[in-house]
Structures are given as structure tokens and as C-alpha cells.
Specification:
The protein has about 350 residues and is an alpha+beta fold. The chain contains seven helices and 24 strands. Strands 3-4-5-11-7-6 form a six-stranded antiparallel beta barrel.
Length: about 350
């Protein structure tokens, strides 16, 4: 019972309610105040954007007369929470879209951020924070990280309120699992029925659970909070993750292996080379071409360590790995053994090789 209680996970950590999601925002604008590291005059998009912006202030300047290297055209991205009210602040990311060398020291001019429906939901403006730099002079270049990418902490202001609509038109809430699993979905439905009463929830498929919403929508927030706080023991698919490049192996402790017999051995070949100098004992007068040479003597050694042979009954990957480690089997050899066990059909788990 204690082990089951420790393995229980809140529904809040297993999934989300359908309709509760973040919203992507995007926009394009201009960063000014760059010390000659902005877009070059051949970037027509930047010159047109500058001309359009100045026209908003009754300054009509043809784009072919704009030659400043202190500005850069950028794309702005942000994430709008599932619920937000007018005036809320959000973080924004700024990336260069032209040929600017660096955005360090720049300030983003007020830019509208739009959603997928092309409606403006936020405005972004403010000085950029760059996590790098780029300086060049006389052919010398010093650069750290990516100076053409920056952020503005709380630089976006929400202009249109958004609300998450959790209750579907049929009067039900839909709980969506992060990892689809029919057993876990059924356990969630049973746990909700135990807490809210029989018939309150039904597992629709391996990914979603349908939950009856409260009558007349009263107390929806408290109702959702109560459901999210419930805990179940999620079912897990047995997996063994192998990274042969780093020699890493990760497996669940309860991953089972059928009765097997393992015999493992290898041949080790080593080459030992000793170098010595061949020095002539007497060099006479006029002995042109006589010189010291280096001679290498190589010994080829072949070792065949004792084979490792063992028979296991019904066991787990954890027990097998511990026993092989006691036999001084290397991690890479253990990986090879597990792959062979999987090929033999005795490892009841998915092997994922990275």
C-alpha cells in the first residue's frame, strides 16, 4: 500500500482539460538604436518598414533615401496564457530577419502581436536583452552566442482578454492525457467516479476521459480544481533506452525478462611497440649518407578472457544489470547483451536506441 501511494500521480500532472492551451502570437517590427550593426541599405524590406513607420508621424521619406545601419527588421514571438486579461504582461522573443550583425543595445518599437485569426492580442515594446555580443575590426572578429536574438522580459502587454472554454457544447469536460494509455484512462475514470459519484466520468479512448460538468456551470473552477487534485497510479509501458554513443542504459526496475542463458566473451588484441635508435659505431672520414635511424619493434598480444556464462530464471532488467556488474561486465557489453536478449524474444519491453 505504501508503494502504491508513493507511485500515485495527480491528474494535473498526467494531462489537461481540452480547451486549456497556450496561444501563439507573432508580429514583425523594427529595432532601433543599433551602433552601426543593423541591416545594410540593400535590405529593401527594412527600408520600406522604416518609411512606413515614419509616415505615421507625417514624415514622408522615400525608402531609397533611408541608408541608416542603426535599425533592423525583426520578428517577435510570444505565448499568450490560456486565460489573460487586458493589461497583463508577457515575455517576448525578438529575432533578426535581415542581415544585421547584432541587436545589442537596440530598442523594439511598438509592435502589434497577432494570433492565428489575425486579430491583435498584445503590443510589444522595450529595450532588448542580448545574451551575446559580436565585435569586429580590421578583420578581427569576436563573437559570443547569438547576438541577433534577444528577449524583452514582460515586454508585451495584453490588449484583448482571452478565456479558456472548458465545457463542450454537450455539457461535458474532456480530460486529455499527455501519454495515451487505455489502462491509465480507465483508472482515471474510476477514480473520478469514486470521488464525484458513479457515472460522473467515462473513458472515451486511450487519450481522453469525458467528465460531466457541474449543473448550470456553477462552481466550475472549484470543480476542476477538485478533479485535478485526485491521484491515480498511471500504467507504464516497459521501455529500455540505450545510448550507445555514451554507454548509457536506462530501464524500469520492473521490466521483466523470460528465463535465459547468457554466454559472453571476447578477444582482446593489443600491439606493444618499442622504439630504439640504431647508431653507427664508427663514421669514417668522408662517410656521406651515414646517419642514425629509428627502429620499431612490435609485439602482438592476443588475450581471450574467460567466458561469462549464466542462467537466469524469471528476472528483471534491474537484477540482470546488477549481476552483470558484479561480474565486471562493462556497460557497453551489458548493452550488447540486452540487445541480444531482445532479439531472442526474452525481453518484454520496447528497446529504444538513441
Amino acid at each position: 500500500m505504501a508503494a502504491d501511494a508513493a507511485a500515485q500521480v495527480r491528474l494535473k500532472d498526467l494531462g489537461r482539460f481540452q480547451g486549456w492551451r497556450d496561444n501563439m502570437l507573432v508580429g514583425y517590427g523594427i529595432v532601433t538604436g543599433l551602433a552601426g550593426s543593423g541591416d545594410t541599405p540593400r535590405n529593401q524590406a527594412t527600408r520600406q518598414a522604416m518609411s512606413n513607420m515614419l509616415s505615421q508621424f507625417d514624415l514622408v521619406i522615400p525608402q531609397d533615401q533611408i541608408q541608416s545601419r542603426n535599425v533592423a527588421m525583426v520578428m517577435i514571438t510570444a505565448t499568450l496564457p490560456p486565460t489573460a486579461t487586458v493589461g497583463d504582461k508577457i515575455d517576448v522573443n525578438v529575432t533578426s530577419t535581415g542581415d544585421a550583425r547584432s541587436l545589442a543595445g537596440g530598442t523594439l518599437i511598438m509592435t502589434p502581436l497577432k494570433g492565428p485569426d489575425h486579430q491583435v492580442y498584445a503590443l510589444a515594446q522595450g529595450p532588448l536583452v542580448i545574451g551575446g555580443y559580436r565585435f569586429d575590426a580590421n578583420g578581427n572578429l569576436r563573437q559570443k552566442n547569438h547576438p541577433t536574438v534577444g528577449t524583452i522580459s514582460l515586454g508585451g502587454t495584453v490588449e484583448a482578454a482571452v478565456r479558456a472554454d472548458l465545457v463542450a457544447s454537450n455539457g461535458y469536460l474532456n480530460f486529455v492525457l499527455k501519454d495515451a494509455d487505455a489502462t491509465t484512462a480507465e483508472r482515471i475514470a474510476q477514480r473520478i467516479n469514486q470521488s464525484l459519484g458513479a457515472g460522473s466520468a467515462t473513458s472515451v479512448d486511450a487519450e481522453s476521459v469525458r467528465i460531466r460538468a457541474p449543473a448550470n456551470g456553477e462552481g466550475l473552477n472549484a470543480y476542476v480544481a477538485r478533479i485535478e487534485s485526485l491521484a491515480v497510479v498511471p500504467d507504464q509501458v516497459s521501455r529500455v533506452v540505450i545510448n550507445e554513443r555514451t554507454g548509457t542504459l536506462v530501464a524500469g526496475g520492473d521490466t521483466h525478462i523470460a528465463p535465459i542463458t547468457i554466454s559472453h566473451g571476447d578477444i582482446r588484441v593489443s600491439v606493444d611497440t618499442q622504439y630504439m635508435a640504431s647508431q653507427p659505431q664508427f663514421v669514417g672520414v668522408g662517410g656521406d649518407g651515414v646517419r642514425t635511424i629509428i627502429v620499431g619493434n612490435s609485439d602482438l598480444n592476443v588475450e581471450e578472457p574467460a567466458h561469462i556464462a549464466a542462467t537466469y530464471g524469471h528476472t528483471t532488467v534491474s537484477e540482470l544489470v546488477h549481476s552483470l556488474e558484479k561480474a565486471n561486465v562493462s556497460t557497453r557489453d551489458i548493452i550488447a547483451i540486452l540487445q541480444a536478449i531482445k532479439a531472442a524474444g526474452a525481453l518484454h519491453a520496447d528497446v529504444i536506441v538513441q
